[in-house]
TrEMBL record:
Keyword Zinc attached: yes
Protein name listed in UniProt: Metallo-beta-lactamase domain-containing protein
A UniProt-annotated Pfam family: Lactamase_B
Biological source species: Cladophialophora psammophila CBS 110553
Domain Metallo-beta-lactamase: 120-138
Family affiliation: Belongs to the metallo-beta-lactamase superfamily.
Amino acid sequence: MGDSQQRPSDDGLRLPPPAADQAYVKVSALNGGFLTLPERNFVTDPDPEKGTTVPSMCFLIEHRESGSSSKPTRVVFDLGIKRDLTKYAQPATQHHITTRQPVYSSADARSSLLSGGLDPAKDIDYVILSHIHWDHIGLPSDYPHSKFIVGSGTLYILENGAPHYPHERIEKGALSADQTTELPPVPESERKHMAAASQTRHQWQPISTLPNAVDFFGDGSLWIIDAPGHIHGHVNALLRVGPNRWVYLGGDCCHDRRIMTGEKQILEYDNGQGKLKSAHAELPKARKTIENIQKLIAVNGDAVEWIVAHDWKWASENQNRFFPRWMY
């Protein structure tokens, strides 16, 4: 995955070079709690008895305009697991959590920020949620003055549920309508009826091998990536952290790093009613999203460091890159 040898035909897919006055972002990992994932639900050729306790990582991103000495804009990407599991009000969610034991909800994103001197209630400008599953949505009430950014269709699902995320698992009122804005639907979306009336003014454009990306700050430093397949509205992030250095935050595009490296594939298993299911709402789209990311890494070589939310190997090997220390 880290092959830096490029084929000439790949040149047009390389990530763009920095501008003369290029802005960059800083990024640091945040603890977001831990849950246990049984292999038999996620990867091909699983050990049927093996469950791995994995992190639900979040990330702090700091953006400062090029040449500016003003206070940085701070973004948190994902909020992890609620530190108080009783705050999951729905019985169906509580039952689901029992299938992911052991679950550890401390330290969480809030305590991680506080440990570095940042107050979530005052110091975070934006929260970008990759998606609204229980182990990523955390406690939005910790961020009363932040603007929440979510993928298109997210607010519809919170109100109506979705086939892969039924209404009985939805935490009603999880996000404040006054604080939350959706990204617009991608041009080819077949679900524009699910889009919220309140949308950001961003426009989707391709970057490298990724067909739909939003230049969030308009300076090429933070890109929100449409990453369909896992759940409607699932997004990733691509961060420009140096002149030839990027970080890709993959959320739940896959739940095991071996899927990204090609050692394993996404598992389809019997749902107990004679039908196949997987960890993703739309498996063909999830596979295509992974393929696009794999191509991004292959084409751009060592310039891209990638991290998926539940990557226990990355977390265990990079403890020195969790806040208050910085990755870049």
